[in-house]
Design goal:
By secondary structure, the protein is α+β, with helices and mostly antiparallel strands. It has one domain: Glutaredoxin (3-Layer(aba) Sandwich). About 45% of the residues lie in helices and about 20% in strands. Strand 1 (about 35-45), helix 2 and strand 2 form a beta-alpha-beta unit. The protein starts with a helix and ends with a helix.
Length: about 120
């Protein structure tokens, strides 16, 4: 039963990411291993460092369009997703490939550091 719940949550997250990709007009980047690279930005509207990172995240999303899908996740509106990714502090940046977490960073950081999290 636990496996079914985890599988269902994964499909829900995947559907949300695909929906966002379609809505934003971005094309997913398929890595050599066959996976999609996603940078999830966990934030809150009331968070000062999150507000500072928003233009950095948007700029990086534009630069990496077609290579990385950027998904902004408001922790107040999506607490289950934040819990699923064990987000304890924000801003928190989680990079996944093929649905598996491959890197993570917490706190405000320069754009180049954020880019390095993606592996590009």
């Amino acid at each position: 039963m636990k496996g079914n719940i985890i599988g269902s949550l994964f499909l829900l997250v995947l559907a949300a990411v695909i929906g966002w990709i379609v809505w934003s007009g971005m094309k997913p980047q398929v890595s050599p291993a066959g996976g999609t690279t996603v940078l999830m930005d966990f934030y809150a509207d009331w968070c000062g460092p999150c507000k500072m990172m928003k233009p950095v995240v948007h700029e990086l999303a534009t630069e990496l369009r077609g290579q990385v899908n950027v998904l902004e996740v408001n922790v107040d509106q999506s607490p289950d997703l934040a819990r699923q990714y064990n987000v304890r502090s924000i801003p928190c940046f989680v990079v996944t490939r093929d649905g598996k977490e491959v890197n993570r960073g917490v706190g405000a950081m320069p754009k180049e550091n954020l880019r390095q999290l993606t592996g590009l």
